[in-house]
Amino acid sequence: MRPFPSRRQALQQLAGLSTGLALPAFAQSDRRIVLGQSCATTGAAAQLGIQMNHGARLYFDALNAQGGVNGQAIELRLLDDGYEPERCKANTEQLIRDEVFALFGYVGTPTSLAALPLVNQHKVPFFGPFTGAQALREPFSRSVFHVRASYFDETALIVRQLTALGLKKIAVFRQNDSYGQAGLDGVQRALAAQNLQPQAIGTVERNSVDVAAAVQAIVPKAPDAVVQISAYKSCAAFIRAARKAGYAGNFYNVSFVGTQALADELGKDGRGVVISQVMPYPFSTTTAISREYLDAVKRSGGKTKPNYSSMEGYVAAKVFTEGLKRAGRNPSREALVAALEGLGRHDLGGFSVNFSGRDHVGSQFAELTMLTEDGNVKR
Question: Under CATH, which architecture does the 25-148+285-363 domain have?
Fold first, then answer.
């Protein structure tokens, strides 16, 4: 029979075991930097999360293959929230308990807002959320960094385009939550500057395609255009139902709709649908960042199709990495925040971000694109 170990031997054995346990991510300076991402990978908004995650992984995987940052690999840990705020909050609590170094690439306004109190409480860097909501920009949080323009920027561009064409009867189809409200606020703000207001407003519940009430609220008013503030499945359902009901006007969407996902949903019915974009055009080699992104897509072996949502993940990963490089060999969360604030104007090759200690909204870039009947996107 083996004798029981002495107290000293037992402590030594426990010490030996503890060296094999995972250390907090921000302390793993000699091995890896762990980032946490909560987004939808199932449900009605799944393609947004999947594409955002794929784009980020394109960059991080290539970076890790070259030795990572200062010898540290970046691991992106993904949790599915189904585009539901309570699930996102639970995921965020779990990631914070797991002591990830930072939170990265969350997708959606209601989900990101559910995470925000935890972000501020624990002072965890919250980088590159896929949302343009003003509520994540104001009041200012030192932990939150945006690489995209706001919904105010996008809706102002849309309203300017429509009114410049003489189209002033503008309706809004919106998701019935904080995302839809953020977009509606932007449209109303832009219209009010021209002494106008929405012709009609229709709503749809998050993760639903029941658009009958919205069609009834909007189509009889015969607006010149409908600005859509929802995710791709409900927007596609509304477009089809409105056209079936006899509507012959124009449809405009903000970037969160998911351009590729909307094009896939609509097929030939997508012809002429306009979408505002906040990222570089991902389908040509006219800019250095687009060439780099397309090369990464090609090297991935066809697992990812070029699209705006994955381009956003790629851009966010690239900017985050630049901050991490400047944060030093053994970065802390505070060092990362300070490094990002010190970036100033940083050109990625045809697309720039600009951070400072007082401004964490890196870009105001927005432009309009249009879907074609063959599923492509033209500027």
Answer: 3-Layer(aba) Sandwich (3.40)
